Amino acid sequence: MNIPTDDSGESPARSPGDAATVEVAESRLLRGRRLRPKLLTGNLSRTVLYLALPVLFEQFLSFLVGTCDIFLAGHLDPSISKSATSAVGVAAYVGWLASMLFSLVGAGTTALVARHWGAGQHAEANRIANCSLTMALGLGLLSLCAIWPTASFFPQQLGMDAETSTMTTHYLRFDAIGLVFTSLCIAGAAALRGSGDMRTPMLIFGTVSVVNIFASVLLVYGLGPIPAMGVDGIVAGTVVARFSGGVLLLFSLAWGHSGLGIILNELRVTAAIAKRILSIGLPAAIDSAILWTGHFLFLKIISGLGSASFAAHMVGIRVEAITYLPAVAWGAAAATMVGQSLGANQEERAVASGHHAVRQCSVVGLTITVLFYFGAETIYRFMHNDPQVIEVGVPAFRIVALFQVPLVISIIYVAALRGAGDTRFPLLMTLLSTFGLRVPLAWFFAIHMQWGLTGAWMGMCADMLVRSLMATTRFVRQRWLKTVV
């Protein structure tokens, strides 16, 4: 294992407050042990499932939020429903971009906390968690300062009409306020999951999702003295929910019941810890930025197909997010198990954890494939009231349905690699598949061959298939076992 320690198993002293940090960390550990299964000794299949299910529930609630937002937008007055759907969809892409910025901290935090936790170095895990919170807050404020003045850039680049552009710009600016609190949630959840605590992030993000749905519905339609806000109500509900999540995350860590917690004298960015976090997180963030850029170019191709195709794409992508729920859940389980197993020098368990996660989740992916393919028309008729959107979206969605298992495989194996600290290969993989396949093939089939949205999504499917093959090959070859963190 590539983590320096002293004879006691703790990392070398780094500050005058180390003794207090160790005492606080160990007292919190005693309170948090009841929340975790025996990750390093328990039955592997049950342990992976135990870790995945809370994240799955959390992801499901998050999916309901996004689906609710698209549903609300799609059922506003017909004169603005397409514009509202586009605004909500573009905001999701920009929010995804901000989350990728936050992965500068999140990816490294999970890998490092998992390694130290698996090695029994709980005080060092707490140092990393506290440093990551401060770094994440800085990134959250940076995203707000960047998005507010540049919000109009996104609809302009997508060639939106004046009404849709104005609506989207307004939506993006207020959504950015909530991203400050999202940054804290992502960093805190990354640390908690690295320690094996999947329950606390589930409760926090679950609460955020429930608040988001109820607040958005209430503010869109109004009730009593609360006026109906229309599309503004959707973003207002999102901001209220994200604020709630940030407060809950800080309160949970201040209490420290999971074993990790806020330690005031460690809430600072130290060069040594920041360097370790960024050495893992920077490739992951660049990977995500490349992926986002490719998706934005892909979105630009689709925007040229007309408003009906653009709205149909937003509906399809939102519904396809169902597949991401189990994939992200089992990916989080794989990342935690791989990181902790490597920290405990259990390489065989680390490898087996990734394979178990893929096998379990592929069954779910196959089920989703069947539901998507045969239920495409029902899904679109439920999600939107425009006949053109339904006509364009259904045949394209049926093609995408056939590639859900490869999507699951790529997400889980990449998460497992990142759990080991191997973030450079996924970066290369994303660069090749996004700009070598997704974007050029989408343009060729959609524009040159004039196959419309169906053609664009054929390029997306080719990307998903190749990514799954590359991720599987990398994991099976096991070079990631020697990654230094």
Verbal overview:
The protein is an all-alpha fold and 485 residues long. It is built from 15 helices and no strands. It has helices spanning 18-32, 44-74, 81-118, 122-150, 153-157, 162-194, 199-221, 231-255, 271-303, 307-343, 347-383, 387-401, 404-419, 424-448, 452-477.
Descriptive terms for the model:
485 residues; globular; mainly alpha; disordered N terminus
Please outline the major beta sheet: none
Which class best fits the helix and strand makeup?
A: mainly alpha
Shape: globular
On the 0-100 scale, what is the average pLDDT?
86
C-alpha end-to-end distance: 9 Å
Describe the secondary-structure layout.
Elements: H1 18-32, H2 44-74, H3 81-118, H4 122-150, H5 153-157, H6 162-194, H7 199-221, H8 231-255, H9 271-303, H10 307-343, H11 347-383, H12 387-401, H13 404-419, H14 424-448, H15 452-477
Helix pairs in contact: 1-4, 2-3, 2-7, 2-10, 2-11, 3-4, 3-6, 3-9, 3-10, 4-6, 6-7, 6-8, 7-8, 9-14, 10-11, 10-12, 10-13, 11-12, 11-13, 12-15, 13-15, 14-15
Brief rundown of the structure:
The protein has helices at residues 18-32, 44-74, 81-118, 122-150, 153-157, 162-194, 199-221, 231-255, 271-303, 307-343, 347-383, 387-401, 404-419, 424-448, 452-477.
